């Protein structure tokens, strides 16, 4: 089993990387899609909801599919769907067709996200050491490479369609080369049988959403993803309107935040081993809260940018720890628990920015982001108290 695990870990790492790469490659395509379809900002926003809607719809279903057919099959089919639909996002010129394509793309991303996290948690349980932070770190690195990669390919003179086909081929080749190294369904059932918690989990998986631990972790995931979504959608506007930064440079806040997240996740497994998961979550959430507060109140651009870096460092390893803890819940299969907290978390990423916009409209963007800072502090405090209570 050790040899199998040692082969499976690099395989799932490559899946995390290529998934982040494929998802973020859509970002440079957005301006092309807006111009091609002749959309205004509001219409584009509604169209973009289709991607998130597809992901959220498939996430709870993915847990069931993973238990029934094995996550290796689910990952493979999802990646094929992603690779197939990606080139269509570059040339479809009808709004309805584009909405359907984005929905399929999002569904594929959501499905593989749940399945690869379930595989990661299972492997971590067998390996006996933390690996989830590095897996999410590779997803973040893939995201950074993907967001820049397609743009660079186009800058070199490659047609957008050819660049998209290149990325799709990379996804397919990665899955093809790593397929046999991933656990098949029988190996996953054998893994589950080695853990007492999962021996009793056949019926519990049907009611994963009603489990107190799942609901608690899902709620905290909702807040963390909500804050990350707020950074993606509102950080540039905050820097431009509240700090007077030129529009061409206003994206630097989110870039710094993303780089900090990626770096800290790559070192996160060692931190969890040395400091414990409770310290990483509590300390990370409070650090993230302080970083966001610095962004809001600092009158100096340099400190504001530093605040984005601190925010990214603090938030980086919270969600990987939550996935790890989901895999340890009694009477709930790993796939079901991961599917439940993923759905709640990504709901926060979709609904959070909308909530921030609503609050900003009623008061100010600074106050809306301040509420996010308070909620992040609440994540750290509530997790600390919950873990203390569960140990007593």
Question: Would you give an account of this structure?
Answer:
There is one protein chain. This protein is 84% helix and 0% strand. It has 392 residues and is mostly helical. It folds into 2 domains: 2-194, MFS general substrate transporter like domains (Growth Hormone, Chain: A); 208-391, Growth Hormone, Chain: A. Helix 6 crosses helix 18 (334-362). The chain is globular. 52% of the residues are buried. The model is unreliable at 196-205 (pLDDT under 50).
Essential attributes:
392 residues, mainly alpha, Growth Hormone, Chain: A, 2 domains, single chain, 0% strand
Please identify which CATH superfamily of the largest domain we are dealing with. MFS general substrate transporter like domains
Low-confidence stretches: 196-205
Tally of structural domains:
2
Tell me the helix content.
Answer: over 70%
């Amino acid at each position: 089993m050790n040899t199998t695990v040692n082969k499976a870990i690099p395989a799932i790492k490559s899946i995390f990387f290529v998934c982040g790469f494929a998802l973020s490659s859509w970002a440079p395509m957005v301006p092309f899609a807006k111009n091609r379809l002749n959309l205004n900002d509001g219409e584009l926003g509604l169209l973009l909801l289709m991607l998130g809607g597809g992901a959220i719809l498939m996430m709870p279903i993915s847990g069931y599919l993973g238990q029934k057919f094995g996550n290796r099959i689910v990952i493979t089919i999802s990646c094929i769907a992603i690779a197939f639909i990606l080139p269509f996002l570059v040339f479809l010129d009808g709004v309805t067709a584009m909405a359907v394509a984005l929905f399929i793309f999002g569904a594929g991303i959501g499905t593989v996200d749940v399945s690869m996290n379930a595989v990661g948690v299972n492997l971590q349980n067998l390996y006996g050491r933390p690996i989830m932070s590095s897996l999410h770190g590779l997803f973040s690195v893939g995201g950074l490479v993907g967001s820049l990669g397609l743009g660079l390919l186009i800058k070199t003179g490659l047609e957008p369609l050819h660049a998209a086909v290149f990325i799709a081929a990379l996804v397919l080749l990665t899955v093809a080369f790593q397929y046999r190294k991933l656990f098949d369904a029988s190996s996953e059932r054998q893994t589950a049988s080695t853990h007492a918690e999962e021996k009793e989990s056949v019926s519990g998986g049907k009611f994963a959403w009603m489990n107190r631990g799942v609901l608690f972790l899902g709620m905290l995931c909702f807040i963390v993803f909500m804050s990350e979504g707020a950074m993606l959608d509102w950080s540039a506007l905050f820097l431009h309107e509240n700090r007077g930064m030129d529009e061409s440079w206003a994206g630097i806040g989110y870039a710094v935040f993303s780089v900090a997240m990626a770096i800290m996740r790559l070192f996160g497994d060692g931190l969890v081993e040395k400091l414990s998961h409770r310290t990483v979550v509590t300390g990370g959430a409070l650090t993230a809260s302080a970083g966001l507060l610095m962004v809001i109140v600092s009158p100096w651009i340099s400190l504001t940018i530093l605040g984005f870096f601190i925010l990214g460092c603090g938030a980086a390893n919270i969600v990987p720890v939550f996935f790890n803890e989901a895999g340890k819940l009694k009477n709930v299969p790993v796939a079901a628990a991961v599917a439940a907290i993923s759905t709640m978390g990504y709901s926060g990423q979709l609904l959070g920015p909308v909530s921030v916009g609503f609050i900003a409209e009623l008061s100010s963007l600074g106050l809306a982001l301040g509420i996010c800072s308070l909620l992040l502090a609440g994540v750290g405090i509530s997790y600390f108290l919950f873990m203390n209570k569960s140990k007593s």
